[in-house]
């Protein structure tokens, strides 16, 4: 028998003992950092997509506010300019779109300013969401009688 075949694993040279432990620790740490970076990127991406959706909804809420203001200003009767001028000075609306599909949790504030007889500025501010994920958009439209 050859004496080398009966060697025990503990008889390995000191430079080869425990080599895989530091490699395994390095791999675990690197993979953990990669997983943390991926998780953070994913969570930021989901918040950004929610914010983008709320921004578009706020724009549509403001646009709906402008349309409502124009409707109040010129309808049902836009036959006499002084009557329309009077409606503009008294136009101040708060619209709540709760329960409306696509604009749930949105609102709009509408106002009208008489620039000169027959010239109107309608401003609407649409807001959607709450807290940190709240978006506000404003629109301004000028109309002439």
Write down the CATH topology of the domain at 51-144: Nuclear Transport Factor 2, Chain: A
Radius of gyration: 34 Å
Listing every helix as H and every strand as E from the N terminus to the C terminus, the arrangement reads HHEEEE
Q: Could you tell me the strand content as a percent range?
A: 25-35%
Cα separation of the termini? 113 Å
Largest sheet: spatial strand order: 1-2-3-4
Q: Could you tell me the number of beta strands?
A: 4
Could you walk me through the main structural features you see in this protein, from its secondary elements to its overall organization?
With 145 residues, the chain is α+β, with helices and mostly antiparallel strands. It has a domain at 51-144: Nuclear Transport Factor 2, Chain: A (Roll). Helix content is 44%, strand content 28%. It has helices at residues 20-74, 81-89; strands spanning 92-96, 106-116, 119-130, 133-144. A four-stranded antiparallel sheet has the order 1-2-3-4. The longest helix has 55 residues, at 20-74. The protein starts with 19 loop residues before the first helix and ends with a strand. The model has no long low-confidence stretch (mean pLDDT 85).
